[in-house]
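Request: Give me one sample?
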Amino acid sequence: MGKYLLSIDNGLTATKAVLFHIDGRQIQSSLQQTPVINRGAFSEIDMNEQWARTAKCISDVIKKAGISPLQIVAIGGTGHGAGLYLLDREDQPLGMAVTSMDNRSSGIVKGWQDENITAYDMTLHPVWAGQAIPILRWLKINDYDRYNQIHKILSVKDWIKYKLTGCSTCEYTDASNSGLINLRTCSYDKEILSIYGIEEMYEKLAPLSGSSEVIGYVTGEAAAQTGLVEGTPVTAGLFDVVSCALGSGVYDDSLYSMIAGTWNINSGIEKDIVNCDSNTKCSLFADGTNYIYVESSATSAVNLEWLADNMTTGFGSPVSDKGELYKAIDIEVEKLKPEELNIFYLPFLHDCYLAEGVNAGFFGIRAEHNIFHMFRAVFEGVAFAHRMHIDNLRKGGIIRSKAVLSGGASNSDVWCQIFADVLNIKVETTESSQAGALGTAANSAIAIGLYNDFETAVSNMVKKARTYYPGENSDIYQSKFKAFKELIEKLAGNN
């Protein structure tokens, strides 16, 4: 009888349950839309609805896979980092959860920046509006009654773990990404909260656990709701950037991890604390001893989705098979030569520190260009934005000769080759389409003793797919990248 690992991935777009064999083979998956409610600067989730959809995914994936739930040997979770999931004194949801895309506290963050109020020396993490700390400060100022009822502070995966086990914990990768721990001591630090005026929240922080710890077991109530077996071990899990890196095969200082999806996420693992740009985020890695440095912005494959959706649905004709649409785009884009394409696309649909005050747009379009020239410009512009983030990692001494690419862009051969040419390094992809879930499964495998360490787990569970080398277009792209940055500088200077 086979043994399986169940991974739960609570992203901001989709909530997924993915079943893996212990050798890393993806067996089955189930998906529900994440119930995000966006209202102006507010981005929230009904916590009970999120649990209901997660339970449905779990039940569905077991049925679709046709296995006995007794064959599931461990359950692990991942999800969007940061945000705020609160429990009251009865351990019930305290209002709506706040997602990491929430912007209500942006004025507070700006005020701290202007007054040079910072705990960066301890957290090694710049404060941003989607983190727990500024959101808590906003609640203290604007909704003190709710603030005063806070009993536990959790992340999204911690909430799901609580519903599965009845145990409330937070693990180190999520806590460090939220700026809640002192990375020099690897522990909560009341001074951090005091600096930001929320010191009373120190007692509300959930107990810390290592990523590869079993924190509890499926309860009878959760078993009845999900189809799982009571007593199945549940692990602490990882926040999504770390799980994606691990699921891409990145566990040491030999590779970059690049995620090209909604977010442009680029990371490298270091054994020691290094001196990076103040916009670079530093978190603990899954092993609890190494550090993962992250450069990110919302400037990646979401740009292709935006353009394709607007081109195909603007006249009321939605495409039934997006996969076929993207294949058709690839075929036409590959026919175009980079030296003949003098269009630049600026992938700034959302505010980005890489180009302060610069919005998305095409530059250089002429009558001879068609829609596929624009699509190729999008491919290149996204790769250029990733290169800007990678260069920031390089400035901090995080230098690699190859990268593993995951996310939507990794499905396109032509786009992967553009990445290799723009970055001028080898780019690899992996077989699994669910890197975050696979990384979570590898973490769970270690937690229950199937593998002794991350190197062994990755070598057994993560399978390489394709490799791309810098080619004849690499020199062309070095010149185009320079022109891309000069264009940003000119536009930023006019604001």
Observations:
- The CA atoms of residues 357 and 492 lie 6 Å apart.
